[in-house]
Structures are given as structure tokens and as C-alpha cells.
Design goal:
The protein has strands at 9-12, 15-18, 22-24, 32-35, 41-44, 51-54, 64-71, 78-86, 93-99, 102-107, 112-114. It is mainly beta. The strands form three sheets. The chain has a five-stranded antiparallel beta sheet with strand order 7-8-9-10-11, with no helix packed on it. It is extended and about 55 Å long. It starts with 8 loop residues before the first strand and ends in a 23-residue tail after the last strand.
Length: 137
């Protein structure tokens, strides 16, 4: 899919086009496809991905965000998605929401942050603290 912005890969009813000029309209890949570059995406049936992997930046590469997003067909505006953000060879959090910078839910190794109303049928807290008000009806 290509919404008009640069994409290293375009997939449509005509086939697959790698924007370096390689086009595959029929055929199969026996094990994996790698899209090197800033995002370092690998799709494979076996190692190393066992599905789809997206690499972090290397040392000196700065911050990053990768995601699976849903966009409007009419203008490419991002509606929602899920993904991760991090730094050099690190993962800081996972996100779900409008974008990585406007998440509805953000998860780190120690914290779950809800930026929207939460409806729960039951709440069990076995450890931890609350830094502000918790109201349970």
C-alpha cells in the first residue's frame, strides 16, 4: 500500500513493487523477505522473524517508532494503530491509539497508562501503589 508518501514497498492488486525497481507480480518467496534501511523490516516463515520483525535503531541512531497503522484512503490521515517506541537498541513502550504520540494506552515494563476512560467489570490489585485518586463503583 502506498498513500503517496515514500514507501519502500507497494502492495496492490497488480503485485508487489519494491521501490528500488524490483517488481514481483507472480511467484513465491521460499523463506524470507528483508527490507533493509532505516526501518529494517524482515518477513520470514522461519528464522530470524518467525513472522514480521522491525529493527530498533543502532547506537547513534536516536529514537524510533514502528507501528501497524490504519489510514484513510482519501487522504492518508492516520486513524489508529499499535506499535512500539524506543531508543538506541532499546524498547521503551508499546502503544495503542491514534498514534505513538497520542496513545489511548501505553505499556512499559513497569507501567500501564490509560489516556482514555476505562471500563472494568472487576479490578484486582495484588501489589503496587496509586499516586492519585482511584474510584471504583
Amino acid at each position: 500500500m502506498n498513500n503517496g508518501a515514500y514507501s519502500p514497498l507497494t502492495i496492490n492488486s497488480s503485485g508487489v513493487t519494491f521501490n528500488n525497481g524490483i517488481t514481483a507480480t507472480t511467484g513465491t518467496f521460499s523463506n524470507s523477505i528483508s527490507l533493509p534501511g532505516a526501518c529494517g523490516i524482515t518477513i520470514s516463515a522461519g528464522t530470524p522473524a518467525w513472522g514480521i520483525t522491525q529493527q530498533t535503531t543502532n547506537t547513534g541512531g536516536g529514537g524510533w517508532s514502528r507501528g501497524y497503522t490504519f489510514i484513510k484512503a482519501s487522504d492518508g490521515t492516520q486513524l489508529a494503530g499499535f506499535g512500539a517506541t524506543g531508543g538506541e537498541n532499546t524498547l521503551n513502550n508499546l502503544w495503542l491509539g491514534a498514534s505513538y504520540s497520542s496513545p489511548w494506552l501505553s505499556l512499559s515494563s513497569t507501567t500501564a497508562t490509560f489516556n482514555t476512560a476505562v471500563t472494568m467489570r472487576a479490578l484486582t490489585a495484588t501489589t503496587g501503589t496509586f499516586s492519585s485518586t482511584l474510584t471504583v463503583n
